[in-house]
Each structure stands twice: as C-alpha cells, then as structure tokens.
Write a structure and sequence with these properties.
This protein is of the alpha+beta class. The protein has 22 helices and twelve strands.
Length: 734
C-alpha cells in the first residue's frame, strides 16, 4: 500500500541531509534497507554505508523499510519526525477517510430512508407494530445510524491527527494540502449524512430537560403507598427523576422509551402485590408531566441558532507507548455529538477548535457543562485566534539529541507534545539542564509541568540515548551473572558463614532484580537504561509523576532493597542478648536513604515498604517519607508493618555494601566470643584473630564519608575483640 510509505516526494525539511545508516546487497542500484535484519535483504554479503537522507536515498528504500523510514533513535528529532510519518501516522492518515470505502459504504438514499424511518417512529410516539416487519426495518435503520456516526467520528479523528502532525512539521503543509482538502470534503459529506439522524428540535428539548430543577415529589400520593414510608417513597421518586432527566438530557431515546423507566420504581415489588399497578400509573403520570415541562420550557425560548460558541475538543495525544487511546470525539456524549453535527460552522481540527452557532438553550448548556468539551462564547463565524504560543512550534534538529549540547535549543510545550505524540519511547527519564537547577534527571511528566510554569531549559539526553559502549557490556554482564550470587536477605543471620551475606541489598543485585521483570531483550535494555538514569537522582520520590506505571516496577526494584536492613551491629550494647548491638559506627551507612509510606509513629497507620502488598506494590510515591539510616537508630518507637519490615532502603553502593558486610562480620565475631553456651561449637580463637586482622586492615579509614571518630571507634572495637580472642586462646591452650 504505497500511500502509507515514505516516498521521494515527501519533504524532509530541516532533516534533509541528516546522516543515516543503510544496508544493501552489493550493486550500484541495489535497494537500501534501514535494518540489517530486514526480511527483504536476502544476501549474505551485506554492505553498510553512511548516507545523507534525501529524496534519492528514500526512493531506493525497500517497501518494508519505507513504511517506517530510517532507523534512528526514537527520541531524536528525526526519530520524532519519522514516528509522525510512519506506521499509522501522517502518511497513512492522508490516505484514510478521503473517499468512500467501497467495502463498507452506503448510498445517500439508504441514509435518507433510514433517517426518515427513525424520525417517523420518534414522531409517532409509540413502539410501532412489531408484527408487520417494522421492527426489523427499525433495527436495520439503527444499525446504519451507528455505522454512519462511527464513521464520522473516525473520519474526524483521522483529520485531526493528520492536521496535528502537519502543524508540528509545517514544511509538509503545501505538499499535504490537496490530500487534506480531500479529507475535509469527505468529512463534510459524512457529517451531512450523520446529521440526518439528528433531530435539532429534540436537542433543544434535551437541553431544556437538563436545565430543569428537581420538581416537588408527591410523597404523600396514595398511589405510591406500596413503596413504603415517606423516606423510602422520596428516595424512589428521586431516583426515578434522576434517571429520567439523565435519559432526557441525552436526547437519544424517544419519550415512549423513557416512559418504560416507570418500572424501575417497582422493580423489587411482586407483580401481583396490591398497589403495584397504582404505583406504575402514578409513575407514568409523573414522567408525562416532566416530558411536558421540558417541551414547554423549550417552546418558551427561540430555537433559532443565534448564539456563537467556540468549543475546544479535549487534548488527547495518541501516545504510541500506550495502547487503547480513544479518538478525539470518543469521550463526548450523544447529545454533544448531535450538537456538533448540527450546528458546527467552521472547524480547525489541528487545534481541535470548533465554532458553533446554536440556540440559546443549547448555548447555556454548553457553557455550563463541566464535561470534556471546553466552551466559551464566540464573537463571529471564524474560530478563535490562537493565543501566543498555542500554535505548535516545529520540531527541528537541535531540540532533542541530534546536535552538540552547545547548540541545543530550549524545549517548549509544543516540542514535548510532539515527542509524546509521535515517539513510542517518549515516556522515560531525561537529563535536562537549566540555569536554575543545573543538570537534573526528570521524567517527561515533570518536564512538561515545569515548562508550563515557564521553565527555560534544554534536554541533554534521554535514557535511550545513553552510550551503547556502557549499556551494552553492562547488559551482558547482568545477563551472565548467576542469580545464585545474590545472598541471603539483608535482615537474616549468616554474616559470619556466608560471604554473600547482604548481596541482594547492593547495586549489582538491583540490576539483576530489574531485568528479571523484563519480558524480552529490548525491555531489559530499556529497564537498565532507565535504572542508570534514576540512580543519579538525589531524591527518588521526584521520579513519581502521580501517574501509575510511569516508572516501571522493575526500575523501582533496581533502586530499592527488597526488605529492611539489619542494623543490629550498629546499635548500642546492653539491651539484652538478642537485641544488643556492638556499637559499631555507621560510617558510610549513615546517609543511606530510607523510604516508607509513614515514618511518623504519632500518625495513624503503620509504615510500609513501597513493595508491601498493603500499598499495592506500587513503588515510591511523592507523598512517601524520606529518612536516613542515622534517623532509624535515633529512636526505637517506629511502628513498622510486620510483613514488609516497614521501609525499603536505597540500594547500597559497593563501598557501603562492603562496610555493611564488614560490620556484620565484626558483630558476628563479638557474638561468638561472648557466647558461653556449652552446647554450641567451640570457638576457634586463631581463626577469629585472623578475621579480625583482616577487618582491622580494611577499616573505615579509606571509606568515602568516613570520619576520624568513626575510625577510632572501629579500631577500638577490633582491638578489644582481638584481646578477648587472645585471652580465649591462652585459656584453651594445652
């Protein structure tokens, strides 16, 4: 299907001449391929070349590679441009909904006949004769109505998507103009067909029904005595009113159909119970009175379209990274769709701005609505002019990562919208730079919020832009590392016997934990790239955007320990044998970050780890509390969850993990020397002295963040234990 492929006539704008990598068989006129594994590249002797992107190169692309264009990083400027063109992007949309589909089409006569049948049924005010074939004819007419309305919504969505892409890349405007004009003409044709199924007078009555105040309800009417006491009668009649008003405000059902709602009033009353029929008759009278009141209210106002209203459709970027995103009109109710079909005068689909000329009642309802359609009073037939900065600025080299950082351009809201709309890899972490904040790592949502508040900065790189020379070997190393290397839980015993103790609290174990959640090699690489970015963030809570799943759970697993740390070696001795510590200085472990849902014992509720099942294993939230290991030892009245331990720690660096293990070994030796129980294995003083000499040699002096007081305390503990071991050796000497 050539109309959805990149062809030589497509203007490349500022991206023309950009260097790309292509693959081909040997031969001067061989087809070019953008992927070395392209299925149409059937040769063992593949030639690789760097060529400038231009019309001549594009014309030589194979049919498969032309569908998506050059293979480039998805968050680069060229990658965003290719994402806007390829797949179901602009090239496809320009060919879609531009003319009738011969496989699923209807004639104008069929539409008129179906609309006339439904209108006659509505005017008749009854269900019609079910036995003379009218039911089947009405069913077919309803089906055609749904098809036409759906086709109009999809055609409008396709035009909106095409014009949005062109607005971001304006050098495509003249080239795409004939195709856009064809789409606009076809949309107008379909809209005229869909409008035949809409009753303008019914829309005005529906607006009047929506504006009605709750009427006095006859709770003392004997007809409703079967419903119970006055309170129960009032509740039932109120529910009947709300149901009727909601249905009448939509304007899609006939009055005869809405009258059936009277049965909702007696749904739990037996059919033979005395008083049931009287209640049904009373409900029918109420519904008829409400219908008459709505028609009377509509009749008292002028139904001539005289009020100008500018309506803005909800912004809905179709993010390739998320599935199931609905179309631009899909969130609108049936009444609103009918209004757009009937009274739209002009439309700018690139901005989603429609100018309507509607009756007064309809205008009042549109302006008062809090729904997805934002409306304001207009002044004429033309759509409201774009406010400064609203018309998207175009994406060009230098906005993202395809130029040197020195030449990078400040990012705008329009640039970020194009990135989110057209790049499947947009939802990730980015290194950004600004004069106010310096270099930072932020999620895309946070960058968008900052830009809307006037932030002036550039995107330096995304997670997908990190050097392959670093990520590739790391991915290979993580994939080859056996899971058995991960030690026991950091809160378990075994520090003296297991050299792998505490390993699952370290950075290496975090990377392995993260990739275990990934389902394929591409997901593993993306996870590690995001993890590498996130490790540079000072406060991990800043990575929470408030949108569930913005940061994969796998990344949280790589950032935080699976459980609490065992801090017994660092507690002061003398609190009993089981709870007593060794008073080892915290050293480099003091500033290790601790995250919990609730770290205030005075606040109701226990503290939970971000991975606790009580929190839905959601990862960190910006509302969580941040402590340090030093804070944990400063008090002992924490109210932690007994299932998860109450918190998760930031994974330990190699230096911190080494010191954590050494402290536990020292604590373990102190426990062995202080254990006088005869049924335990005898202590081997020589082995303990050897271990103490090793610990003394690798004390905290060289540790980052080590301090002199901590080093002195470490040596004092080692020396004291060595003296005790020497005395034990002398006592046990033959």
């Amino acid at each position: 299907m050539r109309d959805r492929m990149l062809t030589a006539d497509v203007p490349l704008g500022p991206f023309e001449g950009t260097g790309i990598t292509v693959y081909s068989a040997k031969g001067r006129n061989a087809r070019l391929h953008v992927r070395s594994d392209c299925g149409l590249l059937r040769t063992a002797n593949v030639t690789t070349a760097e060529v400038p992107l231009n019309a001549e190169v594009v014309d030589r692309f194979c049919s498969g590679c032309a569908d998506w264009g050059p293979s480039v990083r998805p968050t680069s400027g060229l990658g965003v441009f290719m994402g806007a063109l390829g797949g179901a992007g602009l090239l496809y949309q320009l060919g879609a909904y531009a003319e009738p589909d011969e496989d699923a089409y209807w004639t104008q006569e069929e539409v008129r006949a179906a609309a006339g049948l439904l209108r006659s049924e509505r005017d008749a005010g009854d269900e019609g004769d079910e036995g003379d074939g009218r039911w089947e004819a009405r069913r077919e007419a309803d089906a055609l109505r749904e098809r036409v309305l759906s086709h109009w919504r999809h055609a409008a969505g396709s035009l909106h998507r095409a014009q949005t892409a062109i607005a971001h890349f304006p050098w495509l405007t003249e080239w795409a103009r004939p195709k856009v004009l064809a789409k606009e003409n076809y949309l107008q044709t379909v809209r005229a067909q869909a409008a035949l199924f809409v009753d303008p007078a019914g829309l005005v009555v529906a607006a009047a029904a929506a504006a009605l105040d709750t009427p006095p309800l006859p709770v003392d009417d004997p007809a409703f005595a079967v419903l119970g006491d006055r309170g129960r009668i009032f509740a039932r009649l109120s529910a009947l009113w709300r149901g009727w008003q909601y249905s009448a405000a939509q304007g899609s059902e006939r009055p005869a159909s809405r009258a059936i709602r009277r049965y909702d009033l007696v749904e739990d009353i037996r059919s033979r119970k005395k008083g049931r029929e009287e209640a049904l008759e009373g409900a029918a009278r109420l519904i008829r009175s409400w219908e008459e009141e709505a028609r009377a209210a509509a009749a008292t106002t002028d139904a001539t379209p005289a009020e100008w209203v500018t309506a803005r459709l909800p912004e809905r970027p179709e993010e390739p990274s998320r599935r199931g995103v609905s179309g631009v009109l899909d969130d609108l109710d049936e009444w609103t769709l009918g209004v757009l079909l009937t009274w739209t005068v002009t439309a700018d689909w690139s901005r989603g701005a429609l100018t309507l000329k509607v009756p007064t009642l309809v205008a009042d309802r549109l302006l008062a609505s809090s729904g997805p359609l934002a409306c304001e009073r207009g002044t004429g037939t033309a759509p409201a002019e774009a406010v400064p900065g609203e018309r998207p600025g175009f994406v060009r080299p230098g906005v993202f990562d395809d130029t040197p950082v020195f030449d990078r351009r400040p990012v705008t809201r329009a640039h970020l919208r194009a990135l989110r709309t057209f790049s499947y890899a947009a939802d990730q972490l980015y290194i950004v730079f600004s004069s106010g904040g310096g270099a930072e790592v932020l999620p895309l949502d946070a960058i968008e919020r900052r830009v809307e508040r006037g932030w002036h900065g550039v995107i330096v790189a995304g997670a997908s832009d990190l050097p392959e020379s670093v990520i590739g070997p790391w991915l290979k190393d993580v994939g080859l590392s056996p899971e058995a290397e991960e030690g026991t839980h950091p809160g378990h015993d075994g520090a003296g016997e297991d050299d792998r103790f505490g390993a699952d609290a370290g950075l290496a174990a975090g990377a392995r934990a993260a990739v275990r959640w990934a389902y394929d090699e591409r997901a593993k690489e993306h996870t590690l790239r995001t993890l590498a970015m996130a490790r540079g963030v000072s406060d991990l809570r800043s990575l929470d955007t408030g949108r569930p799943g913005a940061l994969p759970v796998a990344v949280w697993q790589g950032l935080l320990t699976p459980g609490p740390l065992d801090l017994r070696p660092f507690r002061l001795p003398g609190a009993g044998r089981r709870r007593g510590g060794s008073g080892i200085p915290l050293g480099v472990l003091g500033p290790v970050q601790i995250y919990a849902t609730n770290a205030d014992p005075a606040f109701e509720g226990k503290g939970h780890s971000p991975f606790c099942r009580h929190t839905g294993e959601r990862g960190l939230a910006h509302t969580d509390d941040l402590l340090s290991v030093s804070d944990l030892l400063a008090r002992d009245d924490w109210d932690w969850c007994s299932k998860c331990g109450g918190y998760a720690a930031r994974r330990l660096t190699d230096t911190q993990l080494s010191y954590y293990r050494a402290a536990h070994r020292l604590h373990h030796i102190a426990g062995r020397l202080g254990d006088e129980r005869t049924h335990h294995a005898p202590v081997a003083p020589d082995a303990l002295i050897k271990q103490l000499d090793e610990l003394a040699a690798r004390g905290p002096d060289g540790h980052e963040y080590g301090d002199w007081e901590g080093s002195r305390r470490w040596r004092a503990i080692v020396d004291d234990l060595r003296d005790r071991a020497e005395r034990r050796r002398l006592d046990t000497a033959p």
